[in-house]
Amino acid sequence: MPKIYEYLGILVYFYSNEHEPIHVHARKGEFESKAEFYIENGEILEIKITLVKGQEPLVGRDLKNFKDFLAVYANQIVEKWVNYFVYHKDVEFEKINSRLK
Question: Is the distance from CB of 4 to CB of 93 less than 8 angstroms?
Fold first, then answer.
């Protein structure tokens, strides 16, 4: 389970056996949500926040913080996903403690 970011206590990661569409999981405490990236011609057209089966979703301030994070880091997340799953490269973990917006 490669951990790629931590933002304001929200852990953002992949599972090692992921599938398309490109997506990341976000967990804080017992809450977890997933962000799916819909890409066409190399451009992110949409990011959908979805439920994770058997988990309570991020809510309130944590959900807003996750969305704010995605707005800034979406392209880097996709790049890390491609590097890890397509090119089998290690990805760096980054911890971000200051609010983006």
Answer: yes
Lowest mean pLDDT among 14-18, 55-59, 96-100: 14-18
| Burial of 8 from C-beta contacts in 10 A (0-12 / 13-18 / 19+) | middle
Q: Domain boundaries in the chain?
A: 3-96
Terminal CA-CA length for the chain: 28
Distance of alpha carbon 26 from the chain centroid: 6
Amino acid in the structure at residue 74: A
Nearest 5°: phi and psi at 14? -110, 155
The pTM of this model reads 0.93
